[in-house]
Amino acid sequence: MKKIFLSVFLFCISCCFLFSEPVKTNQEEIDFFNIYNLTMLRSQEKLTLMHKKGNITKLGKETIKGDLSGTLMYHAKIKGFGGDVKMIYKNYSDFGNFIVNGETNTTAKMNMRGHMYGTAKVTDKNGNLIATIKYDELQIIHGVDAGGGYWVQLAGKEPVFVGWNEIDRPDREEEIIEGEDDSE
């Protein structure tokens, strides 16, 4: 009796794996994220505190304006044995037909390891939702994204995980190489 039960149980488990669809990264989400990320990178290039040498000099607040509309507020502070950076986008737009609202925050220890958290919503100029991007699973190593990824949910679709290594980032190699000499 036990053998029959075990055989039926194993058969049911096998069917679950065979007929279930794993969450797959869709090229449409990757393509969207790459376009969205141009705005995010462009906005961060405008910040002055974020790009100063040394962690302590990056502390403080600053607000920059989007090329077309809105603001990005940067606020870096010490938190415990590390730091916490809040980046709050309000109706931010540099180019294209989309506007970003939300937070893309980072918390890290002194060794520059941590994670991002927050959610950004992308709408068109009429306020129609285009996508939602969640940062909660993105890992930070040497001060840059280097593990995990983003949940990208295009309007009307299910969220799809996009790994940090699946997106276009022309500056990624330079950042990681520069950070390799950092010790824990």
Rg, nearest Å: 20 Å
Helical stretch count?
Answer: 3
Per DSSP E runs of 2 or more residues, the count of β-strands stands at: 10
Strand content: 35-45%
State the shape.
globular
Strand order of the largest sheet: 3-4-7-8-6-5
Order of helices and strands: HHEEEEEEEEEEH
Q: What is the mean pLDDT?
A: 82
Contiguous runs where pLDDT drops below 50 for at least 5 residues = 5-23, 174-184
| Main structural class | alpha+beta
Distance between the termini: 56 Å
Helix content: 10-25%
For the largest beta-sheet, the strand count, sense and barrel status come to: 6 strands, antiparallel, barrel
Architecture blueprint of SSEs:
Elements: H1 2-19, H2 27-45, E1 60-65, E2 69-79, E3 82-93, E4 99-103, E5 105-109, E6 114-117, E7 119-123, E8 129-141, E9 144-154, E10 160-163, H3 172-179
Task: Explain what the structure shows.
With 184 residues, this protein is α+β, with helices and mostly antiparallel strands. 24% of the residues lie in helices and 41% in strands. The chain has 3 helices and 10 strands, in the order ααββββββββββα. The longest helix has 19 residues, at 27-45. It is globular and about 40 Å long.
